């Protein structure tokens, strides 16, 4: 059973980017000289020195060196103590606990790339870290236990900051804590206390880096572990294959070597500045998309050469200029944004209100490659890709939960038209993965666009009025849905969804009059009509 976890409310949107796996700041900012909002080094004597590194209301580390030995305090959320002892007000590091600064620096030197790039393994519940309560995803029953795999054990060695780094007398009271990046968030988790905090990735890593820089100076001055200092100094120079593997969450050697060829060189920064749709698709894929499926997707991307799309590019420019840049566009909900773009496109294409749109023909007429594959996973409906010398192209999955049917494929292709028009090279610089790890706001807008492009809401509302409006029986409502499905060649879900939203957003009737009608239509989005 999953444990409920308490969240620290310390998310700073100033450091958050829109692109999954990317950060809005320049990675190089994390490697500048001492420049933290919370940063001081106080030397009280030749043998006593206190240093503090961090961000207000985020991650802060305090290290103290004196005659007793090196001590550390790790705090978060403006004072919650992870390692150390809580105290009222500043205490010059007195709350710290004795620790092995060599082991601490060695851990971060060895795992720096993983902390920046690696996500949780695909089959691990992200909400739980305790050994006894780890489960697989929802595909496995909640009462089934998850057996730790070799991948999980290796992940633990890279992300668990062990209390074994502390002095023996401190280990009974101080707990392990984990650091796991997810897109542009750094999660700090203390499983044994059911605590989970999130920190902007750049801030958390910068605080850790400053602390480790300081420890490296200590160790260099000691003259005892030059190899350790050298490993820390070279922490960012990971090889391409390691970077590709961590970034994609893939260990298959052939896939890793294939993707690594798309990196411009070694080093962590390459993962943040790549232009490879192959790397992006692998990172954005949902859980349980295995190596064989990735091989098929990689192959489709690789074989699709870059193509000129002047007509599509002009449409995209006009869509952004005439619709998205309108002062009112960003003031309306996302679904209304999607509808506006869809109605604009129908108008530009000269599609009559009662006419259908053929998304496949539109894409091919605008020189977008369209292909099909059969994946073993049904969680991906389609991918769309552009940039990096490939595409634009769309690949649908014949076994996809939605794209597996003819009508579902039409909706999926319409969804990708939205991305090609207003997200390509902007919110989605390289790819879209329908069913994958894509920002929900972008997907919500694209779903609304697809439904409106195929079946305008005002046409659904007109059908409702023609059938009797508020006097419609359940049978009448079912007949309307069936008629809309046939006329516009859409699925039952799309027809019911558009009819529901059209009545909800257009009718001036009272809530009491509308509730039974809307509730019944809503039920049609979840069950098949006989």
Mean pLDDT: 83
Radius of gyration: 27 Å
Globally, the shape reads elongated
> What gap, in angstroms, lies between the N and C termini?
38 Å
Strand content: 15-25%
What's the main sheet like?
6 strands, antiparallel
Total discrete domains:
4
Helicity range: 40-55%
Number of helices: 18
Number of strands: 15
Low-confidence stretches: 1-34, 90-94, 130-146
Question: How does this structure look, described?
Answer:
The protein is α+β, with helices and mostly antiparallel strands and 530 residues long. It has helices spanning 101-117, 150-159, 201-222, 226-233, 240-248, 253-260, 269-273, 277-284, 291-303, 310-324, 334-349, 359-365, 406-423, 440-454, 457-466, 474-488, 492-506, 511-524, and strands spanning 6-8, 38-45, 48-54, 59-65, 71-76, 80-83, 97-98, 160-161, 177-182, 185-190, 195-200, 369-373, 382-387, 390-397, 431-434. It has four domains: 6-233, no CATH class; 237-274, no CATH class; 310-454, no CATH class; 457-524, no CATH class. It is built from 18 helices and 15 strands. The strands form three sheets. Strands 2, 3, 4, 5, 6 and 7 form a six-stranded antiparallel β-sheet that branches. Strands 1-11-10-9-8 form a five-stranded mixed β-sheet. A hairpin with a 5-residue loop joins strand 4 (59-65) and strand 5 (71-76). It is elongated and about 90 Å long.
């Amino acid at each position: 059973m999953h444990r409920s976890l308490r969240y620290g409310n310390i998310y700073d949107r100033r450091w958050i980017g829109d692109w999954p796996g990317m950060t809005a700041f320049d990675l190089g900012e994390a490697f500048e000289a001492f420049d933290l909002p919370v940063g001081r080094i106080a030397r009280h004597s030749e043998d006593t020195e206190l240093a503090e590194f961090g961000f207000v209301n985020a991650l802060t580390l305090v290290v103290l060196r004196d005659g007793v030995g090196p001590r550390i305090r790790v705090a978060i959320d403006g004072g919650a103590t992870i390692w150390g002892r809580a105290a009222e007000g500043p205490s010059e590091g007195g709350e710290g606990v004795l620790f092995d600064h060599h082991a601490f620096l060695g851990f971060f030197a060895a795992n720096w790339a993983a902390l920046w790039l690696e996500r949780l393994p695909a089959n691990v519940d992200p909400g739980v870290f305790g050994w006894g309560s780890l489960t697989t995803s929802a595909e496995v029953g909640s009462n089934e236990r998850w057996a730790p795999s070799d991948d999980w054990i290796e992940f633990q060695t890279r992300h668990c900051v062990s209390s074994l780094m502390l002095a023996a007398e401190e280990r009974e009271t101080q707990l392990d804590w984990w650091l796991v990046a997810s897109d542009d968030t750094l999660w700090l988790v203390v499983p044994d206390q059911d605590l989970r905090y999130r920190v902007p990735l750049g801030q958390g890593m910068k605080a850790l880096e400053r602390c480790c820089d300081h420890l490296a100076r200590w160790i260099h001055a000691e003259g005892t572990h030059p190899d350790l200092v050298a490993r820390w100094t070279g922490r960012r120079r990971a090889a391409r294959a390691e970077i590709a593997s961590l970034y994609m969450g893939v260990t298959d050697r052939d896939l890793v070597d294939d993707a690594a060829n798309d990196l411009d060189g070694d080093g962590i920064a390459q993962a943040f500045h790549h232009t490879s749709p192959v790397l992006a698709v692998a990172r954005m894929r949902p859980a349980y998309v295995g190596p064989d499926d990735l091989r098929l997707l990689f192959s489709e991307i690789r074989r699709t050469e870059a193509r000129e799309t002047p007509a599509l590019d002009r449409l995209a420019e006009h869509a952004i200029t005439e619709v998205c840049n309108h002062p009112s566009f960003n003031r309306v909900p996302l679904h209304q944004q999607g509808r506006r773009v869809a109605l604009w496109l129908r108008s530009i294409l000269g599609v009559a209100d009662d006419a259908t749109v053929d998304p496949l023909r539109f894409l091919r007429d605008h020189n977008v490659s369209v292909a099909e594959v059969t994946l073993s996973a049904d969680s991906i409906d389609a991918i769309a890709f552009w940039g990096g010398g490939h595409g634009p192209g769309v690949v649908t999955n014949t076994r996809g939960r939605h794209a597996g049917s003819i009508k579902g494929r039409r909706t999926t292709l319409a969804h990708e038209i939205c991305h090609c028009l207003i997200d390509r090279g902007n919110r989605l610089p390289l790819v879209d993965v329908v069913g994958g790890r894509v920002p929900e706001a972008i997907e919500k807008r694209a779903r609304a666009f697809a439904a409106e492009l195929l079946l305008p809401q005002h046409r659904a509302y007109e059908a409702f009025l023609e059938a009797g409006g508020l006097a419609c029986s359940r049978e009448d409502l079912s007949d309307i849905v069936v008629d809309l499905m046939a006329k516009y060649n859409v699925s039952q879900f799309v027809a019911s969804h558009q009819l529901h939203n059209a009545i909800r957003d257009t009718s001036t009737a009272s809530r009491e009059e509308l509730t039974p009608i809307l509730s019944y239509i809503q039920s049609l989005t979840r069950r098949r009509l006989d």
